[in-house]
């Protein structure tokens, strides 16, 4: 897949669009960093991905095995609307991945 091994920062993961983007990137083999303000929402997404892989692959997708999706999902508890939260996410990415290939912002503020 084109996204295999790529790193994506995806915000707004507790919403429909954000969680869909996270699952789509995971289906395509990407590593996803997802900041969450709410630990319960983060836990819910982690559980979904852990139980279902990245959910059933899209019928047109060439990806058939998403069993390692939970391992490629990094949830960071941070409010990125604050400087402190944004720096926390940036430090996490720098330490673990060294770079970001894609950014998807699906939050109501920037």
Kindly state the mean pLDDT as a whole number?
Answer: 84
According to DSSP, the number of beta strands is 4
Broad structural category:
alpha/beta
Low-confidence stretches: 56-64
Basic shape: globular
What is the succession of H and E elements? EHEHEHE
Helix content: 25-40%
Distance between the termini: 30 Å
Side by side, the strands of the main sheet go 3-2-1-4
Residue fraction in strands = 15-25%
List the total number of helices. 3
Q: How would you sum up the major sheet?
A: 4 strands, parallel
Describe this protein's structure.
With 110 residues, this protein is an alpha/beta fold. Helices cover 36% and strands 16% of the residues. A four-stranded parallel beta sheet has the order 3-2-1-4, sandwiched between helices. About 8% of the residues have low confidence.
Question: What key attributes describe this structure?
Answer:
110 residues, alpha/beta, four-stranded parallel beta sheet, 3 helices
Structure described in brief:
By secondary structure, this protein is an alpha/beta fold.
